[in-house]
From TrEMBL:
Name of the molecule in the record: Adenosylmethionine-8-amino-7-oxononanoate aminotransferase
InterPro entries documented for this protein: Aminotrans_3, Aminotrans_3_PPA_site, PyrdxlP-dep_Trfase, PyrdxlP-dep_Trfase_major, PyrdxlP-dep_Trfase_small
Cofactor(s) annotated in UniProt: pyridoxal 5'-phosphate
CDD domains, per database record: OAT_like
PANTHER family: AMINOTRANSFERASE (PTHR43094), AMINOTRANSFERASE CLASS-III (PTHR43094:SF1)
PROSITE patterns membership: AA_TRANSFER_CLASS_3 (PS00600)
Source organism of this protein record: Maritalea mobilis
């Protein structure tokens, strides 16, 4: 434990020395494969020379100019390129420094857009259980992970949550239209119970992140959700903090569905770990309405920082030039197949799921009955620690409330080569074997 620094817990890790491509080296020269791109951040890998050069070039001009004092060419250009990546009609961009700030921005923009229309009764943000939307209080209020919110409950208004479509745990076929209909009925019931006229927006991870372990919604679910939002006057906001930046095989996961959101929230892969960066990309008319009615009451000192925009532009260049979206699909298929092979050999892998390079597997005591491993086993942290000792970084969660299970995100950078996928899977195989030998004997 460092004398002056603190994080969530007292856990310590080695000091970072250097990072390049998909690898990180600690101060003792141990090498690690970044099998989770940090926290699904480093989509283009580490120390990409193109981004370093783009940042260097901007650094020589201006690192920071307060946005209320100066416009910035690079920030304008970046906004224009991002708007092009978003679905048609979403072309107003507000830059921030990360995912939580972007979620806060979307919540406040949605509320102010409702006020601008004279609709002051709408204030409730609906979201899912489980879900994760960030660490600031507004984002915590919409996050469907109760332990993160409970201590702060007296300080905020409870926001309605509806169960995520956990079709694997529920034993439902994701391709059967009845499955989506089942979960959509839940949503509609809850909309009606809350009073549609009080609801502002539905916030959803189009493909689930760490909270659900790369949950792909059942066929027709996103389209049905869009229709419900239209019917009852809710805005639909996609939290693409984890899915954006090409991770699922398209720049935004929105492209996978026939359902256009009213806003997209982005971060993580947007700055790719080169600078803290987030954004909200909104429907034009919502922003115009707010600006016509007294302006947007919101702002962060470091929002729209030129150096961050230069880093983001550099990252976007790499994603486009190296065709990393297509690569995420191709490599994702390969990695998915390899994870399925591991599942065939390790019966305690209950599920493998995801899209592109947003992949996860779930550990179960019994895959047939969906019985989870005992909580006291702390499988999620044990396997991560074993993999870490073997030089592989993966990202895990034990989810609660409706999805009691240990799942592991396997989300390497999109620049990973096929040979490196082999290397990653080899280390994972070794780690799973060690985990089973050490901890699963008595469970089995
Ligand atoms: N939304 C989602 C879907 C996320 O995965 C995260 C971060 N894990 C956030 C929001 C919050 O982003 P940040 O940690 O950058 O504030």
């Amino acid at each position: 434990m460092s004398e002056h620094l603190f994080y969530q817990t007292r856990q310590t890790r080695p000091f970072i020395e250097r990072s390049e491509g998909i690898y990180l080296w600690d101060a003792d020269r141990n090498r690690y494969i970044d099998g989770s791109s940090g926290a699904m951040v480093s989509n283009i890998g580490h120390s990409h020379p193109h981004v370093l050069a783009a940042m260097q070039s901007q650094m020589q001009k201006a690192t920071f100019a307060y946005r209320l004092h100066f416009q910035s060419e690079i920030v304008e250009q970046f906004a224009a390129r991002l708007a092009k990546k978003a679905p048609l009609g979403l072309d107003k961009v507000f830059f921030v420094s990360g995912g939580s700030e972007a979620v806060e921005t979307a919540i406040k923009l949605a509320r102010q857009a409702a006020l601008a229309r004279g609709d002051d009764k709408r204030f409730k943000m609906m979201s899912r259980l489980p879900s994760y939307h960030g660490s600031t209080l507004g984002a915590v209020a919409v996050t469907g992970t109760p332990p993160f919110a409970d201590p702060f409950a007296p300080m905020m208004k409870a926001m309605p949550k509806v169960r995520a479509p956990l079709h694997y745990l529920d034993g439902l076929d994701p391709n059967d239209p009845a499955t989506a209909a089942h979960y959509l009925k839940d949503i509609e019931d809850q909309i009606l119970a809350e009073g549609p006229e009080t609801l502002l927006a539905f916030l959803v991870e189009p493909i689930g992140g760490a909270s659900t372990g790369a949950l792909v919604p059942p066929a027709g679910y996103m389209e049905g959700l869009r229709a419900l939002c239209d019917q009852y006057g809710l805005l639909l906001i996609y939290d693409e903090v984890m899915t954006g930046g090409g991770r699922t095989g398209t720049y935004f996961a929105a492209e996978h569905f026939d359902a256009v959101p009213d806003m997209i929230v982005s971060a993580k892969g947007l700055g790719g770990g080169y600078m803290p960066l987030g954004a909200v990309i909104s429907r034009n008319d919502l922003v115009e309405d707010v600006l016509d009615h007294g302006g947007f009451l919101h702002g962060f000192t470091n929002a729209a920082m030129p150096l961050a925009a230069a880093a983001g532009m550099g990252v976007l260049d790499v994603i486009e030039d190296e065709q990393l979206c297509a690569r995420a699909t191709r490599l994702g298929d390969t990695l998915f197949a390899r994870l399925k092979e591991l599942q065939a050999r390790y019966p305690f892998i209950g599920d493998v799921r995801g899209k592109g390079l947003l992949l996860a597997f779930e550990l179960m005591a019994d895959a047939q009955t969906k019985q989870v491993l005992p909580k006291e086993l702390h499988a999620h942290s044990k396997l991560v620690d074993i993999a870490y000792q073997n030089g592989l970084i993966i990202y895990s969660r034990r989810t609660r409330n409706g999805a009691e299970g240990d799942h592991f995100m396997v989300c390497p950078p999109l620049i990973t080569s096929t040979a490196q996928v082999d290397e990653l899977v080899g280390l994972l195989d070794k780690s799973l074997g060690q985990f089973a030998d050490l901890y699963l004997k008595e469970v089995a």
